[in-house]
Design a protein that fits this description.
56% of the residues lie in helices and 11% in strands. The chain is built from 11 helices and 8 strands. The strands form 2 sheets. The protein has a 4-stranded antiparallel sheet with strand order 1-2-4-3, covered by helices on one side. Strands 5-6-8-7 form a 4-stranded antiparallel sheet. The chain is rod-shaped and about 110 Å long. It starts with a helix and ends with a helix.
């Protein structure tokens, strides 16, 4: 079964090496802070992505020596939980938190420098993000349960590239705040920033393919429209010439028009260039057009 594009993005982010402690801490902070629950009373992640659940467990172990409790359902949902209060306390301490904070906020002391911002945003995305298949749509979002945390995330992301800032938007969906991006370029930039370079190139390639396909369709539609015009003009000219033949006969026509008149009457689908190529005497496209208009005028005057 083919995995979703979201899964492929998260797989690339989750399997990235973060040997340096400051990068690992920033990633873990994003992952835990934006997971399903993060507090003194409850700390867990619930997901259909087994790799994500296992990474959450591995992070808890490396970060604070905490062994998590893993459960799964027949429906394919995995829950990884820091089950004991003392263990949750150790996780919080690792992030310089007491658990008594009034609201969940981004504590930037856990993001050692701007070099660690990609790791933090990658952790947040793995915890609560989704992205559409770029072959179908351009949409990336973070679903955040807390208002202040949502505001902090938007502020941090908007600071990533001061010269060409990312511009996240926000909407409330049910009981969650959704931070989202719609444009392909913004999504490319964010994926590159987080470290999902391969999937960012997938977005670039999808955009190129769509542009080529759209251009081909426009040309096809244009060709179809032009063909319709050629046929309509040919049918009109053929009727005019048939009127001349029925009223006067081709002998009535000047010699230079007879061959052209017969060719057009019998071939209303021919383009002007094709008519020019099939005359016994060479004639330009404009010359053919001029003589056909002359034949139409002659038919009108009968």
């Amino acid at each position: 079964m083919k995995k979703s594009f979201t899964y492929e993005v998260k797989k690339e982010l989750l399997t990235k090496d973060r040997e340096e402690d400051m990068h690992f801490l920033a990633f873990c902070y994003g992952l835990f802070l934006f997971a399903t629950d993060f507090s003194q009373s409850t700390m867990l992640i619930k997901t259909e992505n087994e790799l994500l659940a296992k990474t959450y467990a591995a992070c808890a172990l490396r970060l604070a020596g905490v062994h998590t409790k893993m459960q799964s359902t027949k429906g394919g949902t995995f829950t990884c939980e820091v089950a004991h209060k003392s263990e949750r306390k150790r996780i919080l301490n690792a992030f310089s938190l007491s658990g008594d904070e009034l609201a969940l906020r981004i504590n930037r002391t856990n993001i050692d420098s701007e070099n660690c911002y990609p790791d933090f945003v990658a952790g947040a995305f793995c915890a609560c993000g989704t992205v559409a298949d770029p072959q179908k749509d351009y949409h990336l979002e973070f679903s955040v349960s807390y208002y202040q945390l949502c505001k902090d995330l938007m502020k941090l992301i908007s600071e990533i590239e001061p010269e060409e800032p990312l511009k996240p938007k926000k909407v409330v969906r049910k009981y969650e705040m959704v931070v989202y991006f719609k444009g392909s370029e913004q999504i490319e930039d964010l994926l590159f920033f987080m470290g999902a370079q391969n999937r960012a190139f997938d977005v670039v390639n999808a955009k190129v393919e769509k542009d080529i396909r759209n251009r081909a369709n426009r040309l096809k539609n244009c060709d179809s429209a032009n063909l319709d015009k050629v046929i309509q003009a040919g049918v009109k000219q053929s009727k005019a010439i048939r009127r001349i033949k029925n009223k006067k006969g081709f002998e009535w026509l000047p010699e230079e028009l007879r061959e052209l008149a017969e060719l057009r009457m019998n071939n209303p689908e021919m383009s002007l260039n094709e008519i020019a190529e099939n005359l016994s005497e060479p004639l330009s496209r404009s010359g053919v057009n001029h003589r056909l208009k002359k034949l139409e005028k002659m038919a009108e005057d009968l």
